[in-house]
Design a protein that fits this description.
It contains 12 helices and 10 strands. By secondary structure, the chain is α/β, with parallel strands linked by helices. The protein folds into 2 domains: 2-139, 3-Layer(aba) Sandwich (Rossmann fold); 141-304, 3-Layer(aba) Sandwich (glycerate kinase, domain 1), CATH 3.40.1480.
Length: 308
């Protein structure tokens, strides 16, 4: 019996094929700062590991394996959740090399040669070794969105969901959300509206600040909305930790930028230097939950309340 959840890729660490723990940590840190999607990061992780990418099932071949899974991956891709220790891997060493080259990741030549040789290829999804392996999703981002939508509908809101598979750069996702939300508002501006989305956005680190993708999303959204008096928003990571500190996310309101300006805090500069954590801390709008002991990915909600 196996229990998998978000964070499994980081916690279940067994470098293989001559890869040192230090090399794997260095590569992983670079990928996390590069803006690479989690599917890309986990592809690389699997081909540097002796346990990910179906290799745990390979080691237990002959035994029946039942996996209960809490999904923190957009679309609940079993091969990506915790890097799929008991799931066949559709990616290859060539894919891993392409990702490392695309994001200009500094990799020791010995590891480049190892990936080129194909010695660390993972077992494919149609490999017979997975015949006695079963997987069961017991919690997911879509379930959290559905619960939130039901609550909002019971409170009289018109409800829109963009689904649980939103990915991409946090700033670009914020601009897209703002545009879509305004379109939905225009459909009937007399009714209160909430729009939900899940998934996992990324940040390309350019500065030395602290924060995470949810607050990066929110600050970009606040700048795009430009103090719209009818819109509020919340975004956070359901595990209680957004990026590099102990806050889960933050909230924005129509006066977010005004309050920051009164304190001498430059919103555009905070976004440019990735110092979104300090920005929301300064205005008292970080969302701090503490560890939630679960992880079903990011949660975002925009709220529209008509002027009265």
């Amino acid at each position: 019996m196996c229990l998998w959840s978000g964070g499994g890729s980081a916690l279940l660490t067994l470098p293989g094929f001559g890869v040192s723990l230090e090399d794997k940590q260095l590569i992983n840190l670079q990928l996390l700062k590069s803006g690479a999607a989690i599917t890309e990061i986990n592809c690389v992780r699997k081909h540097l590991s002796a346990i990910k990418g179906g290799r745990l099932a390979e080691a237990a071949h002959g035994a029946r394996i039942e996996s209960l899974i809490i999904s923190d991956v957009a679309g609940d891709d079993l091969a990506v959740i915790a890097s799929g220790p008991t799931v066949g891997d559709p990616t290859s060493c060539t894919d891993a090399l392409d990702i490392l080259q695309h994001y200009d990741i500094n990799v020791p030549s010995t590891l480049t040669d190892m990936l080129k040789s194909g010695v660390s290829e993972t077992p494919w999804p149609d490999d017979p070794l997975f015949e006695q392996t079963r997987h069961h999703i017991i919690a997911s981002g879509q379930q959290s969105l559905t619960a939130a939508m039901s609550l909002a509908e019971s409170r009289g809101f018109r409800v829109i969901s963009l689904g649980d598979q939103i990915e991409g750069d946090s700033r670009e996702v914020a601009l897209n959300h703002a545009a879509q939300f305004r379109q939905y508002i225009a459909g009937d501006p007399t009714l209160p509206l909430v729009m939900f989305s899940g998934g996992e956005t990324t940040v390309t680190v350019r500065g030395q600040g602290r924060g995470g993708p949810n607050r990066e999303f929110l600050l970009a959204l606040a700048l795009e909305l430009d103090a719209d008096p009818t819109i509020w928003a919340l975004a956070g990571d359901t595990d209680g930790i957004d990026g590099s500190d102990d806050d889960a996310g933050a909230v924005i309101s129509p006066d977010t930028l005004q309050r920051a300006a009164l304190l001498g805090v430059d919103a555009a500069d905070a976004l440019e230097t990735n110092d979104v954590g300090q920005f929301f801390s300064a205005i008292g709008d970080n969302l701090t939950t503490g560890p939630t002991r679960t992880n079903v990915n990011d949660f975002r909600v925009l709220l529209y309340q008509p002027d009265t």
